[in-house]
What does this fold into?
Amino acid sequence: MEWLPAGWRPKVVAVDIDGTLTDGKKQLDTGAIHSLRRLEAAGIPVILATGNVRAITYGLWRFLNLSGPICCENGGVLWHKAWGGPIVRADGKEAKRAAEWLATQIDGLDSNGIETNAWRESEWCLFPDEDLEAVQDHIAASEWAHLSVVRTGFAIHLMEPHLSKGTGLEAMFEKMGWLAEDLLCVGDAPNDLPMFEFAHWAVAVGGAFEQVKQAADVVSPLPHGSTFEPLVDAILSPV
It folds into this structure.
């Protein structure tokens, strides 16, 4: 299969974490780790673009020895070691209050949500098995109707409407002096769709949501992190 358009190679690569570098049990694919290190060794910076929090993303960034910035909480928090501190693009208190209100409206809903809310800075996440339709309907009829409700395989995200991986990467690229036409991205879930729209070339891993596969330029025949070895082989091969 053809992983890349003829005559084009990315200068920057952005990758999702959960469901992309990891499987359904959140276990990292060791082949994917090796592949990302190959990109960095070839001078291609890797961006971690995730719905996860900065603390967890930074840990992975640190141990993979990456050089690119990190885009956390679906574009709500941006960070690079050269910036002197994080860029937090929204206040997550509104989303948390919305979750607390939802618990008064939907029987059994846990407003505390997923464990990583303890470190969340710009949004709030409910458990992925909460009733998505009920959450959407109640939010739409509430004072928090402006919030976006986005479900991934690991959480239901309540967040400000201007937040997305796409707008986060746009702000990041402007700060770094990079061009979107040089970006390849890899993802699996609906929160990756704005990133797909921003990037020049988008790859969906095997096991991705159907709407993500439809939006991708290439759909990997391999699941999750197994996508990266042949993809990186193609990126590093002579044009």
